[in-house]
């Protein structure tokens, strides 16, 4: 099961799966963050998801 993967590996997989454009507004709103509370925590605890800054609406 996916919960057996180390958090670091799971966050790396998520980084590969999510394009920078998909994170323009709020990483917590991304569909992967809505799968389960564990995935949401991984996304919110991974600083790389917060490096994209949007200057648009």
TrEMBL record:
It comes from the Eukaryota. Residues 2-54 form the F-box domain. Gene3D superfamilies: 1.20.1280.50. This is F-box domain-containing protein. It comes from Tulasnella calospora MUT 4182.
């Amino acid at each position: 099961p996916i919960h057996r993967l180390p958090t670091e590996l799971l966050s790396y997989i998520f980084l590969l799966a999510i394009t920078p454009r998909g994170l323009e507004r709020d990483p917590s709103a991304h569909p992967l963050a809505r799968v389960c509370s564990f995935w949401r925590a991984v996304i919110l605890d991974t600083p790389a998801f917060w490096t994209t800054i949007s200057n648009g609406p």
